[in-house]
Amino acid sequence: MNELAIDKNEYLVKITNITYFLHALGVFFFLPLLAGFIILYLKKEDVKGTWLESHFRWLSRTFWFYMLWLTIGIILTMLIVGIFILAINHIWLIYRIIKGWLVLNEHKQVV
């Protein structure tokens, strides 16, 4: 492997770490989560065909499912059940970030 390929791989790993970090901040604040999601879409072509593509897909799906259940939870909050949905959704978000980030640090694809 040449030096340029190694540098690009290290760069993409750093970008992926940044997106995980922004998603982690998204547990507390919405804007970093959104920023991480935007970075995923801006850089998804760069990781196409690499082991990092699975992490981008993982985080993208995490974002969309989180948003779906956040919306459902907010709508159902007046029926009390929404509060439970929001709590479970938040725990699920934390789980997905931790699992993906741990696998990333092992330099493996996330499944």
Give the tags.
111 residues; mainly alpha; 4 helices
Could you describe the 3D structure shown?
- The chain is mainly alpha-helical and 111 residues long.
- The chain has one domain (3-105).
- It is 80% helix and 0% strand.
- The protein has helices spanning 3-25, 30-47, 53-75, 81-105.
- The longest helix is centred in the last third of the chain and has 25 residues, at 81-105.
- The protein starts with a helix and ends in a 6-residue tail after the last helix.
- The mean pLDDT is 93.
Brief rundown of the structure:
By secondary structure, the protein is mostly helical. It is built from 4 helices and no strands. It is elongated, with a radius of gyration of 16 Å.
Which radius of gyration do the C-alpha atoms yield?
16 Å
Q: Give start-end ranges of low-pLDDT stretches.
A: none
Work out the number of β strands: 0
* Biggest sheet overview: none
Oligomer: single chain
The global form is: elongated
| Count of spatially separate domains | 1
Question: What structural class do you assign from the helix and strand content?
Answer: mainly alpha
First-to-last CA distance: 26 Å
Count of DSSP-assigned helices: 4
DSSP helix fraction: over 70%
Q: Give the overall average pLDDT.
A: 93
